[in-house]
Amino acid sequence: MPPGEDARVLFDAPTIARRVEGLADEIVAAMGERLVAVGLLKGAFVFLADLIRALDRAGARPGVEFLRLSSYGLGTVSAGQVHLIGDVPTDIAGRRILLVDDIVDTGRSIAYAATLLRQRDITDLKTCTLLDKPSRREVDLVPDFVGFEVPDVFVAGYGIDYAERYRHLPGIVAVEGAK
Ligand code: IMP
Ligand code: MG
Fold this sequence. Notes:
Layout: E1 6-11, H1 13-31, E2 36-41, H2 45-57, E3 63-72, E4 78-86, E5 96-104, H3 108-118, E6 124-132, E7 145-149, E8 155-156, E9 172-176
Parallel strand pairs: 2-3, 2-5, 5-6, 6-7
Antiparallel strand pairs: 1-9, 3-4, 8-9
Bound molecules: inosinic acid and magnesium ion (MG).
Magnesium ion is lined by residues 40, 43, 101-102, 109.
């Protein structure tokens, strides 16, 4: 870890695993068994991998797609503008979509992705995020399913990066001294 930087565990792996099972139950109760989980890359890939298997245990048979967006540069401050780098196939028309992200901060990324997918003649779209930082919200967006609410701290681990580091951590840490 670079000098001046420290990491404090917020949610360890067993705590995340238990919450993911609970989220899957909530999702199946609200959306039923036929849905397509669309993950936002790269941050949501670990969460989505665990969530689809929890959805299976909850009785669902989710399809899996990804959208790749980019907004962050190498620092911790969002560039504010979201770009589409990779799209989903066109055959999601008529499907029930569960849009999945790692963390909702300003809300711009997930709002952008939701708007894009709603233009595709889908039946229904709900949003799911493992972490929610509502104090930072800049657009009018309330995720339908939230794993944990977090204060305004910079987090990493479980797929979430700080300058492309820490994605491999099994738990989620708050990076202190992050710039
Ligand atoms: P938003 O568009 O501002 O809501 O930001 C969403 C994206 O920014 C998330 O999907 C993350 O990839 C990234 N992000 C936001 N907050 C954090 C953080 O605390 N740590 C790491 N990435 C973050
Ligand atoms: Mg992300």
